[in-house]
Design brief:
This protein is about 30% helix and about 20% strand. The chain is an alpha+beta fold and about 190 residues long. The protein folds into two domains: about 70 residues, no CATH class; about 90 residues, SH3 type barrels, CATH 2.30.30.
Length: about 190
């Protein structure tokens, strides 16, 4: 029974992970869904260039005009013409779907106490939890292949296009939001920070 339960748990974990979209942005770069309206930066973009599928660029989406896409890469601002870009994949916020995956696992395991109704309740937990987790992980992703770049403007740091008066060498990257570590002296007996 235990080996069967362990196998079921392993299969559940693999199913949930297989349906999830991976983050394309660096760790701690993306805002949460609640922070997006106040963030002021563009979405993270991964651009596949038309010269080949292994040729790509990634960085913050700075601006989009009908003929040019501006990406602030790791080292500099890059501009790509419409004919140079095969595909643009955006991620606008951190989906933070681990909580859903956790509760799906816990809910599925809790069906052990359901007796013979487990045959119904376990699949319901697994199916609905996997669908919810997968949907949440894919929500901040958008992919465009060809067509107008007008749809990208809302995801740019400068949605109205590149400001003519801006010095492009002065555009700075978004600082990473690295979580603060608390020292043992800052944590009370309950484990909360003071």
């Amino acid at each position: 029974m235990r080996s069967r339960l362990a196998l079921s748990g392993s299969v559940l974990a693999l199913l949930m992970l297989a349906g999830c979209a991976a983050s394309i942005a660096p760790t701690h770069w993306l805002p949460s869904a609640l922070e997006v309206p106040q963030d002021g930066y563009g979405s993270w973009a991964s651009v596949t260039l038309s010269i080949g599928p292994d040729e790509f660029s990634e960085g913050e989406l700075i601006a989009s005009t009908p003929d040019t896409l501006y990406i602030l890469g790791y080292e500099r601002l890059e501009a790509y013409g419409h004919n140079e870009v095969a595909k643009v994949h955006l991620q606008s916020y951190d989906a933070n779907y681990t909580g859903l995956a956790f509760w799906t696992g816990i809910g599925s395991l809790s069906t052990i106490s359901h007796g013979f109704i487990l045959a119904i309740s376990a699949p319901v937990w697994i199916i609905t939890g996997t669908i919810a987790t997968s949907s949440q992980s894919k929500a901040p992703h958008k992919t465009m292949m060809g067509g107008s770049w007008k749809q990208l403007q809302g995801y740019c740091r400068f949605p109205g296009g590149m400001p003519p008066s801006i010095d492009r060498t002065e555009i700075k990257p978004k600082p990473l939001k690295i979580p603060e570590l608390k020292s043992p002296a800052q944590v009370d007996a309950s484990g909360n920070g003071t």
